[in-house]
Amino acid sequence: MHKESIPLLVALAFAFSSNNALLQAADKKSKDEQAILKLEQEWADALVKGDQVVIDHIESPDWTLSDPEGNLISKAASDADLKSGKLKFESVHADELRVRIFGDSAIAFGLVTEKGKYDGKDTSGQYRYTDVFIKKDGHWQAVCTQLTRVARN
Predict the structure, then answer these.
(1) Which one, of 76, 37, 81, 84, lies nearest residue 59 by Cα?
(2) In this predicted model, what pLDDT tens digit does every residue of 10-59 receive, in sequence order?
(3) CB–CB of 152/125 below 8 Å?
(4) Are strands 72-74 and 59-66 parallel, antiparallel or unpaired?
(5) Whether the Cβ atoms of residue 118 and residue 69 lie closer than 8 Å to each other
(6) Topology (CATH) of 5-149
(7) Cβ(14)–Cβ(119) under 8 Å?
(8) How far apart are CA 124 and CA 116, in angstroms?
(9) What is the domain partition of the chain in residue ranges?
(10) 114, 91 in Cβ contact below 8 A?
(11) CA atoms of 51 and 45, how far apart (whole Å)
(12) In this predicted model, which residue has the larger pLDDT, 29 or 119?
């Protein structure tokens, strides 16, 4: 081997290991994004079914909702409203969902179209929403949600 070849081999090895690390990071990010997308769908389905076990798996115990009227709703209050039937979803469908991963934190945001009632009042419509997730012990959980009603034309 020529002395001139050694720097080239070192540079190629570095480039390969750097590209491999970037590919692994992109793959991991993709897996985390896919996990959040899956959780968002499971959450929507659980809200319609009133499946508290799934909701508890997705929402952290201290999850908080900032509703379209600006109220802060605790997980306990939200769970109680679902359990009592005060809050009832007929359908929940998310569109334009995007996920941004920041280490062990993630932000999911999009447009949700829902059909439902709260305390007998129709709350159906479209909402822009933002969900914040944290990854703890390898598991993603939602810590807060913010909803803004899309103005009707």
Answers:
(1) 76
(2) 444 444 444 555 445 555 558 999 999 999 999 999 999 999 999 999 99
(3) yes
(4) antiparallel
(5) no
(6) Nuclear Transport Factor 2; Chain: A, (3.10.450)
(7) no
(8) 5
(9) 5-149
(10) yes
(11) 8
(12) 119
